[in-house]
Amino acid sequence: MARIPLLSLVAFALWPVVLVLGIGTFRVPKVLMGKVAANSFPSGTPHGGDAYWRLNRAHMNSLESLPVFAALVLTAVVAQTVTPAFERFCILVVAARVAQSIVHVSGNSNMHVNVRFTFFAVQIACFIMMGASITSALL
Fold first, then answer.
1. CATH number at residue 41
2. Which of 10, 13, 78, 115 makes a 20 to 30 Å CA pair with 99?
């Protein structure tokens, strides 16, 4: 059984849930206390403070990569092409995704952007290597 890739996929899928809970900690108290209406949070439009908006963007970024990771993991598991290297890429993807989100939320300086991009690039490199691993095993 390909436990590491599947557990990595579950971890990756739960990460946006953690981030949305963070978003909720900003929104819910304001709505419950009557400070803002429940519809005061337009999607795709910056609102709230800078850290709050970065948290929103980190959440969306996580969701954007989830289908790619899921497709690669599920293809490898179904095709039975999981290798130890593939498992390491799965773990690295999740670690880099979490790190990218944390850096994204923590600030917006040039250093933050460069570090965030580095973690993003690690994920893309892993996706490419995972895809190459699956493809070479299937050919």
1. 1.20.120.550
2. 78
